[in-house]
Amino acid sequence: MAADLSQIVKAYDVRGVVPDQWDEPLAELFGAAFTEVTGAQAIVIGHDMRPSSPGLSRAFARGAAARGVDVTEIGLCSTDQLYYASGAFDLPGAMFTASHNPARYNGIKMCRAGAAPVGQDTGLAEIRALAERWLETGAPEPARTPGTITQRDTLQDYAAHLRSLVDLTALRRLKVVVDAGNGMGGHTVPTVLAGLPIDLVPMYFELDGTFPNHEANPLDPKNIVDLQERVRKEGADLGIAFDGDADRCFVVDENGAPVSPSAITALVAARELARHGGKGAIIHNLITSWSVPEVVREHGGTPVRTRVGHSFIKAEMARTGAIFGGEHSAHYYFKDFWNADTGMLAALHVLAALGGQDGPLSRLVAEYDRYTGSGEINSTVADQRDRLAAIKAAFEGRAGVEIDELDGLTVSSADWWFNVRPSNTEPLLRLNAEARDEATMAKVRDEALEIIRG
């Protein structure tokens, strides 16, 4: 096909519409290019439940095997299950998923051995360049001896590894509603939670890449309405929602109220610091709540602030030897999971924390949710740089106000802060604001929005 790879090779992964933007022959070229760039002798591949995933995954395997590389297919899996396989087998890996995107999309998340990320600066640009060359000149010469393609089931081992990283021995009986959104959580959750004192209420566990019930993106409030209602109806202790490839988890309390991913980050950080003797670095991006660095310091840790985006988080995890990292987007990264993100391990921490004491989740997380936030507010603008400059000019020089430009523009004082970041793919500015009380937050939010939309 006459593919435009600039449209589908993103900053961190491959993502596009099938078959309009990419197809199985192109997946085969990606497989060959991936093995060439990583220098792999063997790789591991997994895929989600999308209708196009098995064919694309097998095509990628063919491309790799034709270059003499041995391929282990682990079949249906969550993205963090693929990271587990990459870490446990010490092999480069490829996961076929488009996460929470609509059904017609698919993609590839790639990693080097030990689940080390492959992004634009760590191999993805070279993979694209090779695939583009071969599209013009024809497929590369096959190896004299092709590699093998074998299958291996890793679900039980993945579940056992996760459970070895959380002390679940003191867990009281909990009633837990889980919304898998017809995604890979429906595949992994029953095995991971098997045998625990949990009354599981499953929602949308049927694997269906057409997403017949709602989009598998729990950060959009409309996609957790069913979960909130079910938690209240069942009188459950909490609800958990996973995205399509089940690498992110989102939590609601016993009242159906959403729990901020920043509060989950702070809670898990405190638990991970306790596991590591009260010492260690904790990564948080710059739009997580003030609560996160506060809790980290209170528990003996060192907070490390970074830009938004998993490549920056993983790079800082590796650089600092951090034991845990969290993002506002409900991605959670663990040193003991090869610095990779796993929503399932974060969910186990929440269950262990709640089940290890007698109070409700709302009371437990209140300790970690100390401020009032706006959530992310997107505004379409004609000129991102012009609007950022206008904000800087409006706040620069005000008494007690500090400005930094680590990622977009962060403006802060003793009682509030806000960050405005440009989207890399759309003409948008993204605003996040937080303050010590609702009135202050609303005032700061509205002033920033007036300038942004001015």
From TrEMBL:
Entry keyword set: Isomerase, Magnesium, Metal-binding, Phosphoprotein
Keyword Cytoplasm among record annotations: no
Chain ranges of the Alpha-D-phosphohexomutase alpha/beta/alpha domain: 7-133, 157-256, 266-371
Organism encoding this protein: Streptomyces macrolidinus
Source organism superkingdom: Bacteria
SUPFAM superfamilies with a match to the protein in the record: Phosphoglucomutase, C-terminal domain, Phosphoglucomutase, first 3 domains
Domain Alpha-D-phosphohexomutase C-terminal: 376-450
PANTHER family: PHOSPHOMANNOMUTASE
Official protein name in the record: Phosphomannomutase/phosphoglucomutase
CC cofactor: Mg(2+)
Family: Belongs to the phosphohexose mutase family.
Xref: CDD domains: PMM_PGM
